[in-house]
Amino acid sequence: xxxxxxxxxxxxxxxxxxxxxxxxxxxxxxxxxxxxxxxxxxxxxxxxxxxxxxxxxxxxxxxxxxxxxxxxxxxxxxxxxxxxxxxxxxxxxxxxxxxxxxxxxxxxxxx
Length: 111
Known about the structure:
Blueprint: H1 3-16, H2 21-28, H3 32-39, H4 47-57, H5 72-85, H6 100-103
Protein backbone atom coordinates (compact mmCIF):
# COMPACT_ATOMS: atom_id res chain seq x y z
CA UNK A 1 0.00 0.00 0.00
CA UNK A 2 1.42 3.34 -1.04
CA UNK A 3 1.13 6.29 1.39
CA UNK A 4 0.49 8.59 -1.59
CA UNK A 5 -2.65 6.62 -2.51
CA UNK A 6 -3.89 6.91 1.06
CA UNK A 7 -3.07 10.63 1.04
CA UNK A 8 -5.08 11.20 -2.13
CA UNK A 9 -8.04 9.39 -0.55
CA UNK A 10 -7.74 11.54 2.57
CA UNK A 11 -7.69 14.72 0.52
CA UNK A 12 -10.72 13.63 -1.52
CA UNK A 13 -12.59 12.84 1.69
CA UNK A 14 -11.71 16.19 3.25
CA UNK A 15 -12.70 18.13 0.14
CA UNK A 16 -15.98 16.20 -0.13
CA UNK A 17 -16.72 17.26 3.45
CA UNK A 18 -15.95 20.86 2.39
CA UNK A 19 -13.40 21.26 5.17
CA UNK A 20 -9.97 22.85 5.29
CA UNK A 21 -6.93 21.04 6.66
CA UNK A 22 -7.04 23.33 9.69
CA UNK A 23 -10.68 22.46 10.38
CA UNK A 24 -9.99 18.72 10.15
CA UNK A 25 -6.92 19.12 12.37
CA UNK A 26 -8.94 20.98 15.00
CA UNK A 27 -11.66 18.30 14.96
CA UNK A 28 -9.00 15.58 15.32
CA UNK A 29 -6.97 17.37 17.99
CA UNK A 30 -3.82 17.48 15.86
CA UNK A 31 -1.91 20.03 13.78
CA UNK A 32 -2.62 21.22 10.26
CA UNK A 33 0.91 20.10 9.35
CA UNK A 34 0.09 16.51 10.32
CA UNK A 35 -2.91 16.58 7.97
CA UNK A 36 -0.78 18.05 5.19
CA UNK A 37 1.93 15.39 5.59
CA UNK A 38 -0.68 12.61 5.49
CA UNK A 39 -2.41 14.04 2.41
CA UNK A 40 0.89 14.44 0.55
CA UNK A 41 1.86 10.84 1.32
CA UNK A 42 4.89 11.85 3.38
CA UNK A 43 3.88 9.51 6.22
CA UNK A 44 1.97 6.24 6.51
CA UNK A 45 -1.00 7.15 8.72
CA UNK A 46 -1.88 4.78 11.54
CA UNK A 47 -5.27 3.10 11.77
CA UNK A 48 -6.07 5.36 14.73
CA UNK A 49 -5.24 8.44 12.62
CA UNK A 50 -7.50 7.19 9.81
CA UNK A 51 -10.36 6.55 12.25
CA UNK A 52 -10.04 10.05 13.77
CA UNK A 53 -9.83 11.58 10.27
CA UNK A 54 -12.94 9.69 9.17
CA UNK A 55 -14.88 10.83 12.25
CA UNK A 56 -13.78 14.44 11.71
CA UNK A 57 -14.96 14.40 8.08
CA UNK A 58 -18.16 12.43 8.71
CA UNK A 59 -16.89 9.34 6.89
CA UNK A 60 -16.15 5.73 7.70
CA UNK A 61 -12.97 3.73 7.22
CA UNK A 62 -13.11 0.64 5.02
CA UNK A 63 -10.38 -1.75 3.93
CA UNK A 64 -10.09 -4.05 0.95
CA UNK A 65 -7.81 -7.06 1.27
CA UNK A 66 -7.77 -8.01 -2.41
CA UNK A 67 -5.29 -10.16 -4.31
CA UNK A 68 -1.75 -8.91 -4.59
CA UNK A 69 -1.04 -7.02 -7.81
CA UNK A 70 1.72 -8.19 -10.08
CA UNK A 71 4.67 -6.05 -11.04
CA UNK A 72 3.49 -4.08 -14.13
CA UNK A 73 7.01 -4.12 -15.60
CA UNK A 74 7.19 -7.90 -15.40
CA UNK A 75 3.78 -8.27 -17.09
CA UNK A 76 4.84 -5.94 -19.95
CA UNK A 77 8.09 -7.80 -20.53
CA UNK A 78 6.38 -11.18 -20.47
CA UNK A 79 3.96 -9.91 -23.11
CA UNK A 80 6.91 -8.87 -25.28
CA UNK A 81 8.55 -12.26 -24.87
CA UNK A 82 5.34 -14.11 -25.70
CA UNK A 83 5.12 -12.06 -28.89
CA UNK A 84 8.38 -13.70 -29.99
CA UNK A 85 6.56 -17.01 -30.35
CA UNK A 86 4.39 -15.67 -33.15
CA UNK A 87 7.50 -14.63 -35.11
CA UNK A 88 8.82 -18.18 -35.26
CA UNK A 89 11.36 -17.86 -32.48
CA UNK A 90 11.96 -20.57 -29.90
CA UNK A 91 9.40 -20.70 -27.10
CA UNK A 92 10.91 -19.71 -23.78
CA UNK A 93 10.97 -21.58 -20.50
CA UNK A 94 9.25 -20.10 -17.45
CA UNK A 95 12.58 -19.40 -15.71
CA UNK A 96 13.58 -17.11 -18.59
CA UNK A 97 11.01 -14.45 -17.65
CA UNK A 98 12.58 -11.03 -17.62
CA UNK A 99 12.53 -9.12 -14.39
CA UNK A 100 13.56 -5.43 -14.48
CA UNK A 101 13.59 -5.29 -10.66
CA UNK A 102 16.29 -7.94 -10.40
CA UNK A 103 18.85 -6.82 -12.98
CA UNK A 104 17.68 -3.29 -13.81
CA UNK A 105 19.03 -3.75 -17.35
CA UNK A 106 16.21 -5.63 -19.06
CA UNK A 107 18.23 -8.85 -18.97
CA UNK A 108 16.78 -12.25 -18.09
CA UNK A 109 16.66 -12.84 -14.37
CA UNK A 110 19.04 -15.50 -13.09
CA UNK A 111 16.47 -16.72 -10.54
